[in-house]
Design a protein that fits this description.
The protein is mainly β. The protein folds into 3 domains: 15-42 and 420-571, Jelly Rolls (Sandwich), CATH 2.60.120.200; 58-237, Galactose-binding domain-like (Jelly Rolls), CATH 2.60.120; 258-417, Jelly Rolls (Sandwich). Helices cover 2% and strands 46% of the residues. The chain is built from 2 helices and 44 strands. A hairpin with a 5-residue loop joins strand 41 and strand 42. It is flat, with a radius of gyration of 28 Å.
C-alpha cells in the first residue's frame, strides 16, 4: 500500500545530463517511504481515500509468516505439500484423515483486549485441494457462527446471518474476508478454517484424506486491510497517510500517546453515558464519518441533555471533541461540568457550535478546557441548552492536550493509542558534504513546541540540528547544537498564519545559517561558532520524538546551502 518516493543520490545523472540535486526526496502524500522504519505499539484510526475515519492497516495475528507457529494450531491436520502460485509465492497444504472429526486450523489471538461492540475482520488465502469447500467458524460469541465457501468458483454456499463475507478471486486462490461484531467480550479471539463438503464441518475426500491450501492469515478491526506479514508474537500497525474530507492525501500522520477517557465513544447508550430526557436512537440510515450507518440521532426537548461522565486529573489541560451534524434543531450547544465541584468549568459556559455545523456535512467540534484544583470527574455534554429538535453525533473523545487527535474508539473502557515512532535514517552522501539545505512541508497539530525533521551524527545528540514548530506560535525555530554545553544556539523565523501548509527551509554552511518559513524572508543566525556538517559527522535524518504531533507532507535535502532568495522561492 505504501510506496516509496525517494530521490536518487547526489551525482546520479538524469535525462538530458542534469544532476539530481537531492540527497533525499520524500513525498509523504504519495505514501510512507519504504526506506524509513515506522513503529507504533497499537492500532490507530486515520482518514482514508474516501474521507472516512477508519482503522489504519494492521495485523493482530502474530506469526502470519508461519501458520505452524504463533497464533495457529492445526487440529487433526498435517502439512502435506505446497501449491506454487503465479506470483511466486507458495501456499501450504493441510490434510486430515477422513474418519477423524474436527479437522481445522485454529487461529487464535489472546494478547489483544477484545471488547463487546468491536467489529473484526479475519482474512486468509485458501485454495482447493481434494475437497471443493471450506468453512469459516467464528467463536467470539456464545455460539459458533459458521459460513461455507465453494473453492471451485469462489461463491458463498451459505452464510451466517451475523457474518459479512467478501471473496476476492486471485486467479489460483481466493482471498476470503469474514467480518463480524464481538458479542460477549471474550478474553481471546478464535477463528476456525477447515475443509468441508459444503454443508458440514466433517467432509469426505479422496477416500483416505481431505486436503486444502491455506496462507497469509490476518486479523484486523472493521474492514478489509492490506496484508502485512508478522513474525512470531508480533503484531503489525502500519504508518498512516491521512486525507481530508474530500479524500485528498495530506501526508504522514505522526501522533503522541493519547488516552480517550470517554468510555463508550461510539454509543450514546453505553457505559459512562447519562441521559436526562434526551431521546437517543439508532436511526440505521445516517452515515457517520466512518462511512458506516452508526451515527446516533439525538432528540432534544426542554432541559434535556446527553452527557458522558469522565474521570480525569485535576489542574490538567484536556480537549473534548465529537462530530456533529444538524437535523431539525436550530441551536446546538455543549458544556463541560465539574462534577467534583458541582460547577461549570470556568471559561467554557454553554459553548455554541451552531454556526460550525450544517445539515449536509459532519463537523468535528473541539472544546479545550483545564480541570480546576480538586476536579477529578467531569461531565462533557454533547447537548445542553440546545433548541428543541434533532441532531446527530458520533465519535466522542476526551484526551489530554489542547488539540483533538485522531479518534480512539472505545467500547466500555478507556483506550490508549500508542505513540508513532520513525527510526533514524542514514542519508547516503550526507557525511561528505560541507553544507546542506533542508526543505520541509508540514502541518503542526499541537500548540506545544515539538521537534520535526532533524539531522544528526551517529554519536547522538551531541551534534545535531532540528526544526521545531507550534500550531499557534508566531515563530518556528531551528535548534543547532555543535556543543550543547558551550555553544547552544537557537534562532527563529516569523511565518504566515497558513498553519495547514507550512513550508520551511533551513540552509547551513560553515559561514552562514538561514531559515525561511512560508516565504516570509530569510533570517540569519547570529552564531559565530559554526563548523561544516562534514566536520560534525552529520549523517542521518531524524523525525520527531514521542511528543511530535504533526502531518509531514514532504522533506527534501539538498547537498549544498541555498541563498536567501532561493529559500524564499522554495518556501513560497
Amino acid at each position: 500500500m505504501f510506496s516509496p518516493s525517494r530521490g536518487l543520490g547526489m551525482g546520479v545523472v538524469l535525462g538530458g545530463g542534469r544532476l539530481n540535486p537531492y540527497l533525499l526526496n520524500y513525498d509523504f502524500t504519495k505514501g510512507f517511504p519504504a526506506a524509513l522504519t515506522h513503529t507504533r505499539a497499537s492500532g490507530a484510526t486515520v482518514v482514508d481515500e474516501s474521507g472516512n475515519v477508519v482503522w489504519a492497516d494492521e495485523n493482530l495475528y502474530g506469526g502470519s509468516d508461519d501458520v505452524w507457529s504463533g497464533d495457529y494450531s492445526p487440529i487433526n491436520l498435517v502439512e502435506t505439500g505446497s501449491l506454487a502460485l503465479a506470483n511466486g509465492r507458495t501456499m501450504r497444504g493441510f490434510a486430515g484423515a477422513v474418519g477423524t472429526a474436527n479437522k481445522y486450523m485454529d487461529m487464535r489471538e489472546t494478547a489483544f483486549a477484545f471488547q463487546t461492540g468491536m467489529v473484526l475482520t479475519t482474512s486468509f488465502d485458501v485454495a482447493k485441494g481434494s475437497v471443493d469447500y471450506c468453512y469459516v467458524q467464528e467463536n467470539l460469541n456464545s455460539a459458533a457462527r459458521i459460513s461455507y465457501i465453494n473453492l471451485t468458483d469462489g461463491s458463498i454456499v451459505s452464510k451466517h446471518a451475523d457474518h459479512t463475507i467478501l471473496i476476492e478471486d486471485e486467479g489460483d486462490f481466493y482471498r476470503v474476508h469474514a467480518t463480524y461484531t464481538v458479542g460477549n467480550a471474550p478474553t481471546g479471539f478464535e477463528m476456525v478454517v477447515g475443509p468441508s463438503n459444503g454443508s458440514t464441518t466433517n467432509p469426505t475426500g479422496d477416500g483416505s484424506t481431505v486436503m486444502f491450501y491455506l496462507g497469509r492469515p490476518q486479523l484486523s478491526r472493521a474492514g478489509v486491510h492490506t496484508y502485512y506479514e508478522t513474525t512470531l508474537n508480533n503484531h503489525y500497525f502500519a504508518p498512516r497517510i491521512t486525507h481530508d474530507a474530500a479524500g485528498n492525501a495530506l501526508g504522514y500522520l505522526h501522533e503522541p500517546q493519547v488516552t480517550n477517557h470517554v468510555l463508550s465513544s461510539l454509543d450514546a447508550f453505553g457505559t459512562g453515558t447519562v441521559k436526562v430526557g434526551a431521546a437517543v436512537t439508532d436511526t440505521g440510515s445516517v452515515v457517520s464519518p466512518s462511512g458506516a450507518t452508526d451515527a446516533k440521532e439525538v432528540t432534544v426537548s426542554g432541559a434535556n441533555y446527553l452527557r458522558h461522565s469522565v474521570t480525569l486529573v485535576a489542574e490538567t489541560a484536556y480537549v473534548w471533541s465529537f462530530w456533529a451534524k444538524k437535523g431539525t434543531a436550530t441551536t446546538l450547544k455543549t458544556s463541560v461540568y465539574n462534577i467534583s465541584g458541582s460547577a461549570e468549568i470556568s471559561g467554557i459556559g454553554l459553548y455554541d457550535y451552531t454556526s460550525q455545523v450544517s445539515t449536509d456535512e459532519w463537523t468535528r467540534i473541539e472544546i479545550p478546557f483545564t480541570t480546576p484544583a480538586g476536579c477529578t470527574s467531569v461531565g462533557v455534554y454533547s447537548t445542553r441548552g440546545s433548541s428543541d429538535g434533532t441532531f446527530f453525533i458520533w465519535g466522542a473523545q476526551v484526551e489530554e492536550g489542547t488539540a483533538a487527535t485522531s479518534l480512539i474508539p472505545t467500547f466500555g473502557a478507556e483506550a490508549t493509542r500508542q505513540a508513532d515512532a520513525v527510526a533514524d535514517y542514514v542519508v547516503a552522501g550526507l557525511s561528505a558534504v560541507d553544507s546542506f539545505t533542508l526543505l520541509m512541508k508540514y502541518s503542526p497539530l499541537s500548540d506545544a513546541r515539538q521537534a520535526l525533521f532533524g539531522l544528526q551524527s551517529a554519536g547522538g545528540p551531541t551534534s545535531y540540528v532540528y526544526w521545531d514548530a507550534q500550531r499557534n506560535a508566531t515563530q518556528s525555530s531551528v535548534v543547532d547544537r555543535n556543543d550543547p554545553i558551550t555553544h547552544p544556539a537557537d534562532f527563529h523565523s516569523s511565518r504566515s498564519a497558513d498553519v495547514a501548509n507550512m513550508r520551511a527551509a533551513f540552509s547551513y554552511s560553515s559561514s552562514l545559517r538561514l531559515i525561511d518559513v512560508n516565504g516570509g524572508g530569510a533570517t540569519a543566525s547570529s552564531s559565530t561558532s559554526l563548523s561544516t556538517s562534514a566536520a560534525r559527522g552529520i549523517d542521518r535524518l531524524t523525525f520527531g520524538d514521542a511528543a511530535t504531533n504533526t502531518i509531514a507532507k514532504s522533506v527534501r535535502l539538498f547537498g549544498k546551502s541555498k541563498t536567501a532568495a532561493e529559500l524564499a522561492t522554495l518556501t513560497t
